[in-house]
Amino acid sequence: MAMKGRNLGYGLPNGGMIRNQLVSIMRASEQLFSALEDADDLPDWVLTKIATSMDRLITANNYILSKLEKRRMNPKNMNDKKLEQVCEDACELAVIIRLNGW
């Protein structure tokens, strides 16, 4: 039986697609982090790509967390365990981003 997703008011359910993309982002960032050393000299365009990616991901993260937090504060949704897990996962992702200095 398929899980029923939360209706956040945006039409079609695309949480699975986003989660798959986030896995790819985490894998790529871990590989890049492992490949680089602090003293490496990188081209400016790489720095720009990473900075832009970080900004966009943090912006999306903040928006969704705010939306979920607002929903969680709604008394009819207070026992939504899945929502709490999504918030925890998003917070962990935010911590990874901050720890890596992105």
Topology of helices and strands:
Elements lengths: L14 H21 L8 H30 L7 H19 L3
Helix pairs in contact: 2-3
How would you characterize the overall build of this protein?
- The protein has 102 residues and is an all-alpha fold.
- It has a domain at 43-102.
- Helix content is 69%, strand content 0%.
- It is built from three helices and no strands.
- It has helices spanning 15-35, 44-73, 81-99.
- Helix 2 packs antiparallel against helix 3 (81-99).
- The longest helix is centred in the middle third of the chain and has 30 residues, at 44-73.
- The termini are far apart.
Characteristic terms for this protein:
single chain, 69% helix, 102 residues, 3 helices, mainly alpha
Specify the structural class: mainly alpha
| Estimated helix fraction | 55-70%
Number of DSSP helical runs:
3
Strand residue content? under 5%
Tell me about the largest β-sheet.
Answer: none
Rg over alpha carbons: 16 Å
Order of helices and strands: HHH
Q: pLDDT average, as an integer?
A: 83
Give the N-to-C terminal Cα separation: 39 Å
Uncertain runs:
none
Q: What sort of overall outline do the alpha carbons produce when their principal axes are compared?
A: elongated
**Total number of beta strands:** 0
